[in-house]
Amino acid sequence: MTAAKKPQAPVLSTRALNRASLERQLLLRRHVMKPADAVTHLLGLQAQNVKPPYYALAARLEGFAPEEFSALMDSRELVRIVTMRSTIHTHTADDALALRHLVQPARTRELNMFRKGLAGVDLDQLAVRARKLVEEQPLTLKQIREELLETWPDADPQSLGIAARCLLPLVQVTPRGLWRQSGQVALTTLTHWLGREDAPEATYDDTVVRYLAAFGPASVKDFQTWCGVTRMREVFERLRPGLVTFRDENGVELFDLPDAPRPDADTPAPARLLPEFDNLLLSHADRSRFGPQEFKGRTWAGNVAYNVFLLDGFLAGAWKQVEGKTAVTVTFEAFRELTKAEKAGLETEAAGLLEGPMGLGLPYEIAYGPVVGVK
Known about the structure:
By secondary structure, the chain is α+β, with helices and mostly antiparallel strands. Helix content is 37%, strand content 16%. The chain has 15 helices and 14 strands. The strands form four sheets. The protein has a five-stranded antiparallel sheet with strand order 1-3-2-4-5. A five-stranded mixed sheet has the order 8-11-12-13-14. Strand 6 and strand 7 form a beta hairpin. Helix 6 runs antiparallel to helix 9, helix 7 packs across helix 9 (157-167) and helix 8 crosses helix 9. The termini are far apart.
């Protein structure tokens, strides 16, 4: 007898994956949700710069008030800390405590890149010394390096600072991160800043489930790209009985939660203005569900990322906001020719931000730059 063939998992088209991801990311419609609940659902917000978390939530939440988010930062219910992909994220205090150990392998890999500059340095001793310094008072990375050089004068200064940042869970203290306020990056330990360390540590199993709820359907490589940790196949296999599987148009296996929303591929997707480094575009190995590969290189210049906008759910261009003394100008630079309807959608979205709490109370104008990448 011929063995029965295992049935193939159904295929999800690129548009279907796009709509599923937008729904999980709260971008198909604005949601009535507390900022801290949104940060929890999204597993943190990329926060390389101060403004992106605010604009990320302005695109996702109905009636978002930046001052409310800023107050959560000031009360230490939200914190800025290095987590996913060894980059700064804004997390709830509980998630910062729970997730920090889970992403430590990525920090260890980063530290290993600087081992040459740490010859003769006892890393355990360095961690103890650095902790004592930043818990006495928050310090800048430059100040941490200078203090550590007194103990290890022959070490590379940059490597000493990197070692402290990789070995300890360091948070950026306020006023850094507060809305419309300035403040240099000063660091202390997470537990010292919060005055507690009582959150249960996250497991990889639970984190995969949360990731799928916020970013799925997704492959093993997608999850690894998001968190910066490798060799996660075993975790997905352990969870497989409780998950459903699909394939993308290239045959790659995708995992998902059985009851997670997967809207119809033709579900309307409004124009959205996203900040630089938005997690929507950084959390999958295969980002084709958000736009063609040719657009990828147009969202960066060196180490600088641009704000981007979505049309019909897909990456369609970059935007910038220039705040003058008497007016604010938003300029759109599309990656393709735009229709009148698409421009109207962008202008409506921009007006909602500038006339609402994200604006400065100044007159504004909207301009269009040249189409990027089109000669």
